[in-house]
Design a protein that fits this description.
This protein is of the alpha/beta class and 472 residues long. Among the domains are: 22-51 and 93-130 and 282-353, FAD/NAD(P)-binding domain; 136-280, FAD/NAD(P)-binding domain. The chain is 28% helix and 25% strand. It is built from 11 helices and 27 strands. It has helices spanning 30-38, 61-65, 80-84, 148-167, 171-177, 187-203, 233-245, 335-353, 390-403, 407-423, 435-438; strands at residues 22-26, 45-50, 54-56, 75-77, 88-92, 94-99, 104-108, 115-118, 121-124, 128-130, 179-183, 217-222, 248-252, 256-260, 263-266, 269-272, 275-278, 282-284, 301-303, 315-317, 322-326, 329-330, 369-372, 378-382, 385-389, 452-456, 459-462. It has a 5-stranded parallel β-sheet with strand order 5-2-1-9-20, covered by helices on one side. A 4-stranded parallel β-sheet has the order 13-12-11-17. Helix 1 packs parallel to helix 8 (335-353) and helix 4 packs antiparallel against helix 5. 43% of the residues are buried. It binds flavin-adenine dinucleotide. The site of flavin-adenine dinucleotide has 34 residues, from helix 1, strand 2, helix 2, strand 6 and helix 6.
């Protein structure tokens, strides 16, 4: 029992009779792990709590969603961090409440009893989740991309759409099933659209008998005036041209007004599709509102340049969960921002515990932004540098391999990329949903006859090879 709160205190119990200050880090993403690592030699006990047992390299999630990479290629178990850091305990649990007054967080793992963890310092780094801007009903038909399971759902949806198209009896249905709509023209939307185009036109080109994946329609919807608004206009225009070359239709000023299982309504018109992917925006974790700081429109806690909710509170918010202004400019919600903030907070806590002088206020070092638009083409924008094309793509590839969490991730991704580059094949073309989810009960009322399957009432589709007319 925790004497201060009177509530039961579950794992991790190791620090309860320990006199060292306890630092609780919520979230084992870029920001949280950077804080934990920076505290490696500090005289503190560090408890890192995450609802998942692994860290994800989110910049490559779209490659899992499009079957280039397998989930394990871009993830690393958080518990492995404890092997090299004796003052670190990792706990898998979802943090469900924060009580700043009693300095405890409440966490729970599945159906097990909730438990409290007292803290001396709290580092809140739970990141963000996709937001549907008040249209939460869209989520059912338009999954967002944030976790490995999201990526697997999207991958299954894309590959399943081709399987269903192969047995669809009428051309309108085939067209709908081989139309993919991505909502949001930021880097994730652009990367997804380009990679789906390559999947369709290169990888799957000769894999079907009744449909031609080369005829796939890919539509990228962006509500604003242009795609990639965070990039220089010339670079964004070059990306748009490259998308057009890949056969992606880019529609700007186009807002998804409604999304259901028939497709997307844009400008009052139905765009028929079975696959919509949401890449339009993120909102901070709801935990950001529980630490006594004001929040912005995206739910991020407003913190000053020491990243603390108030000076000396010992409660820090970092990464995508925080809104930080430096000279009136927002620190961007990107991996570099999260890494640098995590490292900075680690230094502040270490200095405070050692009663040394604290570091100067946080300063974001902009190392640039990148977006990849298919094979051999990327954009790179950094202070004093603007690049596009193959060289930028090579820089992108080396940087991303270098930042993957473990050596084995780097080796696996390197090999997989080389294989895909030269063969056009993808290593992870798996539909992981069970066969019952593949069936559409409304359409498969009758059992299939040998050699054929019944797709609509009374409609029979021969599964024997039928050459399709392919685009040259
Ligand atoms: C698809 C995608 C592509 C991206 N591409 C790029 C890119 O190319 N370049 C770039 O710089 N940035 C990119 N980003 C942004 C970048 O990934 C984020 O800015 C960065 O991950 C933020 O780090 P973080 O530590 O704040 O949050 P995250 O990395 O999201 O980590 C948050 C952690 O908190 C955990 N968590 C959340 N809630 C709880 C809870 N209640 N209890 C316990 N644990 C919890 C989560 O499981 C997660 O592990 C991309 C993001 C996405 C989603």
């Amino acid at each position: 029992m925790d004497q201060t709160s009177g509530r039961s205190t579950g794992p991790p119990a190791r620090a309860s009779n320990n006199v060292r200050p306890r630092v609780v880090i919520v979230g084992g993403g870029f920001a949280g792990v950077a804080t934990a690592k920076r505290l490696r030699r500090a005289n503190v006990d560090v408890v890192l709590i995450d609802k998942r047992n692994h860290q994800i390299f989110q910049p490559l999630l779209y490659q899992v969603a499009t079957a280039v990479l397998a989930p394990s290629d871009i993830a690393a178990p958080l518990r492995q961090l404890t092997e090299v850091q004796p003052n670190l305990t990792v706990q898998m649990a979802e943090v469900i409440g924060i009580d700043v007054e009693s300095r405890t967080i409440r966490a729970q793992l599945s159906d097990a009893a909730a438990f409290d963890v007292p803290f001396d310092f709290l580092v809140l780094a739970p990141g963000a989740t996709p937001t549907y801007f008040g249209h939460d009903g869209f989520a059912e038909n338009a999954p967002g991309l944030k976790t490995l399971s999201d990526a697997e759902v999207i991958r299954s949806k894309i590959l399943k759409a081709y399987e269903l198209a192969e047995v669809a009896p009428d051309s309108a249905d085939r067209r709908r099933l081989t139309t993919f709509v991505i909502v949001g023209g930021g880097p994730t939307g652009v990367e997804l659209a380009a990679t789906i185009a390559q999947l369709a036109r290169v990888t799957l080109r000769r894999d079907f008998r009744r449909i031609d994946p080369g005829q796939t329609q890919i539509v990228l919807l962006e509500g604003g005036k242009r795609i990639l608004p965070s990039f220089d206009e010339d670079l964004a225009s070059a990306a748009r041209r490259q998308l057009n070359r890949l056969g992606v239709m880019v529609r700007t000023g186009a807002v998804a007004e409604a999304i259901d299982d028939r497709g997307v309504i844009v400008a009052g018109q139905l765009l028929p599709t079975a696959t919509v992917i949401w890449a339009a925006g993120v909102a901070a974790s709801r935990l950001s509102a529980q630490v006594g700081a004001q929040t912005d429109r995206a739910g991020r806690a407003l913190v000053g340049l020491n990243l603390e909710t108030s000076p000396g509170s010992g409660v820090f918010v970092i990464g995508d969960a925080a809104s930080v202004l430096e000279n009136g400019k927002a620190v961007p919600g990107v991996a570099q921002g999260a890494l640098q903030q995590g490292d900075y907070v680690g230094k502040v806590i270490a200095a405070r515990v050692a009663e040394g002088s604290e570091p100067a206020p946080f300063h974001y070092r902009d190392k640039g932004s990148m977006a990849v638009v298919g094979k051999d083409f990327a954009l790179l924008e950094a202070p004093g540098v603007r690049m596009r094309g193959r060289l930028a793509w090579l820089v992108w590839a080396f940087i991303h391999i270098g930042f993957l969490p473990q050596l084995q991730n780097r080796l696996r991704v390197g090999v997989q990329w080389l294989w895909s580059y030269y063969t056009g094949q993808r290593g992870s073309r798996l539909i992981t949903e069970g066969p019952s989810n593949l069936r559409r009960p409304d359409r498969l009322a009758e059992g299939p006859a040998p050699g054929s399957t019944t797709v609509g009432p009374g409609t029979r589709v021969e599964l024997a090879a039928q050459p399709v007319e392919r685009a040259p």
